Amino acid sequence: MATRKSSSNRQRAKKRPGGRASSGTPPKARARSAEANAENAQQQLAQGLQSVLLAGMGALARAQKEGPAAFQDAAIEGFKLLNQSRSAAQRMVRDAFESAQLTLHSRVGGAREQAHETLDNLESLFQSRVQRAMHQLGVPTAEEIRALTRRVGELNDNVRQISARKRVKKTAGAKRRVAAQKPKRSRKAPPPPPSAEEMT
């Protein structure tokens, strides 16, 4: 009586929240069984195809011996066998494909995460090494180039301002010199025109 209760307690403990009992097999074992199912399906498919081929070859041999009537009978039987093999093969291929797809999804997910981590690590390593090599060669960084470009712009503005001031001073000085060099005209009355006697 006690053993029955303990076994029923174990069965209740193994049940999942959804109401189904857990299979107790780890995911790797399920993946292996899926791969085994896929290989089994491939073998069965190959055997089915081989049977179809042999049936066709036998029908051809019989047709050569017995003539056209036997050939038609063999073709009909071969067609029936082909349909049966095709449906069985499709079913096997579908099952194999589903199990392979589950296995592939689990493996691809892990591989994708690992690839992303590896690429990120490689990218950061590559960037740091390139930056170090460029620094050793004396190549300025992008920030240094931006700062230098700003400084050159400021210097150009200063040079323009200074040259504009010099031009203003030169023109003002030239105007003063010109004004100083011009003789000052007196506002005296012009001399009287010569008289007729002076002209003679």
| Unreliable stretches covering 5 or more consecutive residues | 13-22
Q: Considering DSSP H and I runs of 4 or more, what fraction of the residues is helical?
A: over 70%
What gross morphology would you assign?
A: elongated
How do the SSEs run, as a string of H and E? HHHHH
Mean pLDDT: 76
Number of E strands: 0
Q: Which value, in Å, is the CA radius of gyration?
A: 52 Å
**Span between termini:** 173 Å
Strand content: under 5%
Describe this structure in words.
This protein has 200 residues and is mainly α. The chain folds into two domains: 27-139; 141-174. It contains five helices and no strands. It has helices at 2-14, 27-66, 68-137, 142-181, 196-199. α2 (27-66) runs antiparallel to α3. The longest helix has 70 residues, at 68-137. The model is unreliable at 13-22 (pLDDT under 50).
Summarize the structure.
The protein has 200 residues and is an all-alpha fold. It has helices at 2-14, 27-66, 68-137, 142-181, 196-199. The protein is elongated and about 165 Å long.
Key terms for this structure?
single chain, 200 residues, mainly alpha, 2 domains
Write the layout of secondary structure elements.
Elements (H helix, E strand, L loop, with lengths): L1 H13 L12 H40 L1 H70 L4 H40 L14 H4 L1
Helix pairs in contact: 2-3
